[in-house]
Write a structure and sequence with these properties.
Helix content: 10-25%
CATH topology: Rossmann fold
CATH class: Alpha Beta
Structural class: alpha/beta
Number of helices: 4
Strand order of the largest sheet: 4-3-2-5-6-7
Bound molecules: inosinic acid, magnesium ion
Largest sheet: 6 strands, mixed
Number of strands: 9
Radius of gyration: 17 Å
Length: about 190
């Protein structure tokens, strides 16, 4: 029996220029995993995945961390079905784990305006974790990472809307293995 074909987006006109290839992603995530392994040696960190965009990153990152760890999921929504932020962050699914005394790493897909992150930080800090750090796969060049207290960043990218590797437009393209610019047919 031949294996199932991998999802192909080759003929999709909305999939634009490649921003990050599968191997660039894998290489950088391996490095981030090593950094986190060193930073949390002797601890049992809790990785909090921000659904849904960070699911692919969390999956690969967690497997590059050579420590006992736990994962939990939180879901927020700020975009609805568009590529523009609505300016309002809404908690869609809360954590199951108690954060008290835990070393928490918030795992994000992309920090754009920082609105989502500010909301999440406030919400999680109020639960008395022993520590709280942010690890984001992508950050906009324009994002104030220092002000937002983002410790770990995979890649800094320009302003274009991107898709793939967990990132979506209206729930599409999350299963694409690389990250590409979204060529909006409406523009
Ligand atoms: P922020 O609140 O403006 O920082 O936006 C953060 C959230 O918006 C991310 O967690 C993503 O879900 C979404 N987002 C921002 N930019 C993009 C993009 O280029 N592609 C897909 N999702 C994005
Ligand atoms: Mg999203």
């Amino acid at each position: 029996m031949s294996p199932e074909p991998l999802p192909s987006f080759d003929d999709d006109p909305c999939v634009g220029r490649t921003v990050l290839t599968e191997s660039q992603l894998a290489e950088r995530i391996t490095e981030l995993g090593r950094e986190l392994t060193e930073a949390y040696r002797g601890e049992r960190p809790l990785l909090v995945c921000v659904l849904r965009g960070a699911y692919a990153f969390l999956t690969d990152l967690s497997r590059c961390i050579d420590l006992p760890l736990e994962i939990d999921f939180i879901a927020v929504s700020s975009y609805g079905a568009s590529t523009r932020t609505s300016g309002v962050v809404r908690l869609v699914k809360d954590l199951d784990v108690d954060l008290t005394g835990r070393h928490v790493v918030l795992v994000e897909d992309i920090v754009d305006t920082g609105l989502t992150l500010r909301y999440l930080r406030r919400s999680l800090e109020a639960r008395n974790p022993a520590s709280l750090e942010v690890c984001t796969l992508l950050a906009r060049e324009s994002a104030d990472l220092e002000g937002l207290g983002v410790r770990y960043v995979g890649f800094t990218i320009p302003g274009e809307f991107v898709i793939g590797y967990g990132l979506d437009v209206d729930e599409r393209y999350r299963n694409m293995r690389h990250i590409a610019v979204y060529d909006d047919p409406a523009v």
